[in-house]
Amino acid sequence: MHTKKERINWIDLVKGFGIILVIYGHNYPYLEKYIYSFHMPLFFFMSGLFHPKRLTIEIVKKRAKQIIIPYFLWSFLLFLFWFFIGRKFGDSTNLGLSAFKNFTGIFYAQGGHDYMNWGLQMWFLPAIFLSFLFFGIVRKLKKKSYQILCILLLIITGFLIPKILEIHLIWSIDVALVSLFFYAAAFYLKDFFLNSNNQYETIIIFILFLVHVLISFNLIDKIDMYRSIYGNEFLFLLTASIAISFWMLVFRRLKRFKKLNFLAFIGKNTIPVLAMHIRSITVIKLFLLLLWSSKSFAFSEFEKIILVVLQLIIMYPVIIFINKKAPFLNGKNKVMDPRN
Hints:
Layout: H1 4-25, H2 32-36, H3 39-49, H4 57-84, H5 99-108, H6 113-116, H7 124-138, H8 144-165, H9 173-178, H10 180-188, H11 190-194, H12 201-216, H13 233-253, H14 261-267, H15 270-292, H16 301-325
């Protein structure tokens, strides 16, 4: 059986891997379709692994401090940056965006560039909080069979809402319902992922790898959970589930590699990374403008990988500062040891 420390360490590796995929995916890479097929479901899954046994008011308040308060703090900061600087440069100058709509977008957490040009990526935090609440309520049902039936109905509802209403719901309610598939699956299967020591694990990983490659690079459609775009819904759930299982088992095997400590560090600081990574690319582009005075950028695939590394380097000292002086921006109440 894995100890609690081991569990946290390798889960942080997965989270670090996932958030790096988010950064890379927002740089429009060649693997964009593959990355989008599972990187957001991966985070819903990992959150579900640690869902509390009982939902109480105190637990809801604690989770709100960890997710919702950082969401609003970062969103206000990002909006202010956008209002005074961001909207005056780049593509935003040609969109004629409303400052009022973008301000209301902080509370709406949806609506595309018209409402969240300051930080589209922040939609995820309210959505995952809703998944936590929805699942906690479902768990009030005494029989597991009733819970599963209710979850299936909610998932179907989440898929149907954008087809019927054709509007983006506040806090991505429909996406939160769809994501119950991953959130709930993690909770019910957590013993397998966290505690099991299956002698056939290597064979399982190999089979998952073969199926994962076959499906991911041949059958998947473009996925965009923020915009409720899933392609074939069944294939989306299947592809994401296989990818999540594969990478979870791989990183469970890699947990003892100390050279991956930086990945674990990133995994422990996903909220600041989520909030800052788009602005970090803005800083890089401004620097490049000063060097070459070019108003357009066409990065090669290798350069996009370099960009991810540079983004992480830029964010690293800011994350250290946040953990020392403003841990509430990272969903923490206490100052964190930057070495952890």
